[in-house]
Design brief:
Alpha-Beta Plaits, four-stranded antiparallel β-sheet, 34% helix, alpha+beta, globular
């Protein structure tokens, strides 16, 4: 199936080359190791989590802060707030620049939601990470380099999709995030071989599309 992508919109990217110790500590950085911060806001949270993980593969940076905002991008506190704030930390500004370049590239060319229905009112994220970086591997309790299916959809579509994914392939649920999450979606992280993760993501996507097209089961 061919679904139309819903590209994430990067709202702000800024750097603090020499951050104050209080700011470093407040956002989870270690003043003994970190001096510089890179900050980004985006109107889609889950692609940003993937992009934050991706940047740890390309630069010696740590993801020290990443949180979704309640109720999603449509209810942001300001025009630059979006759906998430991500913060990376490093020992010098050049490393931050390198990390931000990789982060932005992932958001522009790789990780995004798709419209699961003709009106594009149902958004689905059937993303497979072939090789985890340092950030999401730690969040998931997996080893760096392992594959993971990162699956997101609204509550009804997602729940049926996760069940289908787990039954379609030899994958294990690492974490399932039932609704309500901060953005009122539901999510699942599944792991297995790369081929199994890809098969699970396809089964998830097909199920979400079917449920979106036929929400009432009258059997």
């Amino acid at each position: 199936m061919i679904l139309e992508p819903l590209p994430p919109r990067i709202l702000s990217v800024r750097r603090i080359p020499n951050a104050d110790d209080a700011i470093l500590r407040a956002y989870g950085a270690d003043p003994l190791r970190h001096r510089s911060l890179g900050l980004i806001t985006v109107d889609q949270d889950d692609p940003t989590y993937v992009a934050l993980d991706e940047c740890t593969k390309h630069a010696p940076v740590d993801v020290v802060f990443a949180k979704s905002f309640y109720a999603g991008a449509a209810h942001g506190s300001g025009p630059l707030s979006g759906e998430i704030l991500g913060v990376i930390a490093a020992s010098d500004p050049d490393e931050i620049d390198e990390g931000l370049r990789a982060l932005v590239a992932c958001l522009e060319h790789d990780a995004c939601f798709y419209g699961a229905d003709e009106a594009k009112k149902t958004a689905v994220f059937p993303h497979v990470i072939a090789s985890l970086g340092h950030y999401l591997s730690a969040q998931a309790g997996l080893a760096v380099g392992e594959p993971m299916a990162y699956l997101v959809a609204p509550p009804m579509e997602g729940t049926l999709g996760f069940d289908a994914a787990l039954k379609a392939a030899d994958v294990t649920a690492v974490r399932i995030f039932p609704p309500p999450t901060e953005t009122n979606f539901s999510a699942a992280w599944l792991t297995g071989s790369l081929e199994a993760c890809e098969a699970a993501a396809v089964a998830f996507l097909e199920t979400v599309v079917r449920v979106a097209a036929q929400p009432l089961d009258r059997r």
